Amino acid sequence: MILITDEIRAVLIANGERFRRDPDFDPPPVVKLFTPDAAATWLIASAEPDDPGLLYGLCDLGVGFPELGSVLLSEIETIRGRLGLPVERDLGFRADRPISAYAREATSARRIVA
Question: Is the pTM of this model over 0.85?
Fold first, then answer.
C-alpha cells in the first residue's frame, strides 16, 4: 500500500508551507497511518516543503505517550507489528477537527482517539 499518495503529499507540503508563514496554523490531520497488528498510530498534518519525507503530526507508538512531533516517512515504512504486517493508511479516515484537538484528546486518553 502506498502510504502517502501524490495527492496527499501535495496537501501535506502545502500545510508545511503555511506553517512557515503562520506558526499558529492548526490544520486537521490529512492522513491516518496505523499498524494493523499493533497499537501504533500516526495522524499526519504536514510535511517539510524542502524534505517531504519529514512529516509532522500526532504520533502514538502504543505505549501510552502520544505526542505531537516530527517523524520520517522512511522510518514509518520500516515498522512491522507482531505478525510482521506493514503500516497501512486508513482509507476511511476523515478529520473533523484540528490536530491540536486530537492531541488534547490523546493526552487525556493516553492514546489517539480517532
Answer: yes
